[in-house]
Design goal:
With 173 residues, the chain is mainly alpha-helical. It has two domains: 131 residues, no CATH class; 33 residues, no CATH class. It is 45% helix and 9% strand. A three-stranded antiparallel beta sheet has the order 3-4-5. A two-stranded antiparallel sheet has the order 1-2. Strand 3 and strand 4 form a beta hairpin. Helix 1 packs across helix 2 and helix 2 runs antiparallel to helix 3.
Length: 173
Amino acid sequence: MTTKQERMYEAIEKHGRQLLAIFPNATDRDPVSLCKRLRRLEAKGAALGLRLCNGPEFAGGYDEADKVSDAILSQVNALLGNRHEYQPKTGAKCSCRPGVQRDNCPSCEGTGMVVDFRTIRQAKPLIRVLLNRDPRGYALKIDDEDMRRLDLRLHSDMGGYGIIAPDFSEGSN
């Protein structure tokens, strides 16, 4: 007979394994540790949504709230490995000369190293991760279209958005 706490840890590990299957480039390969780190970022996102509704207002207004939101999403995407290298390089130096010629070079796009455009074109599309600012639901979600398109089996809300960091604690189930 399993206890509630054991069932909770099993659910966390199962969810972490599902996330690792969806995001194979995640930086944290331990499913439980990944879930815990994402849960902390979920709490930051939820706090942002609650603050936007109840105050105190951000000193910089919505621009500051956007920066906080972008920082949280950046951390989530980095943790999940949900980003492409901006310009994968081949390792070969470009034949263009520094200056105006390099600034307008289509082979290196001004970097001095030949860009591997084949890798860019063949890269799998990223999964859209959203930060929901409504405090009534989970903050970190996977876009509903991506959930359907990729046929992802993950906790989801009523709108079909995938929940990245659900609360598996005793009172939340």
